[in-house]
Amino acid sequence: MVSTETPLCDFGAPAPDFALPGVDGRIWTRDQCKGPRGLLVMFICNHCPYVKAIRDRLVRDARELAALGIGCVAISSNDVNDYPEDSFDHMKQVAEAFHFPFPYLYDESQAVARAYGAVCTPDFFGYDSELGLQYRGRLDASRKEAAPPDVRRDLFEAMKQVAETGAGPIEQIPSMGCSIKWKAH
């Protein structure tokens, strides 16, 4: 298992469009996921210990961000042949078990992960209301284990700032996680 850190935020980079199947049976596009004040795109998966450590926090933060006008979406792009725990059926089970308040989408071709430049799970892309990138950092100080409950909520605070001002924080700490499991070509 390779740990990978996200690159620095490329402020203003546009959010690539997508149309992906969700665990709810719908096809979701970027614009359907967007909120009036922004969009948070989260690349996650089912098997990664970094993601498992924060799933409850993702749900909490997504609910609170929705109230601030930020839409949230989670996308799984891993190669399910090598990582069967990340299959679409398992995605449905995880979304139901954790009561995901956001669409959980399957990027089977991995084209969306490539378009975004996703490198790990979790990888967060926070956009303003014009779909310009404002945040490419971590959720919080959690790693393979959840950080203490009173830890600073980096992602939530950054996206709250985006909702209120349209701009993300200049100082951002990279997210860390397992590398995206790319298909062999």
UniProtKB/TrEMBL annotation:
CDD domains for the chain: PRX_like1 (cd02969)
Q: Name one GO molecular function term.
A: oxidoreductase activity
A Pfam family reported for this protein in Swiss-Prot or TrEMBL? AhpC-TSA
List, for all copies, the residue spans of the domain called Thioredoxin. 9-161
Annotated protein name in UniProt: Alkyl hydroperoxide reductase/ Thiol specific antioxidant/ Mal allergen
Q: What is the originating organism of this protein?
A: Allochromatium vinosum (strain ATCC 17899 / DSM 180 / NBRC 103801 / NCIMB 10441 / D)
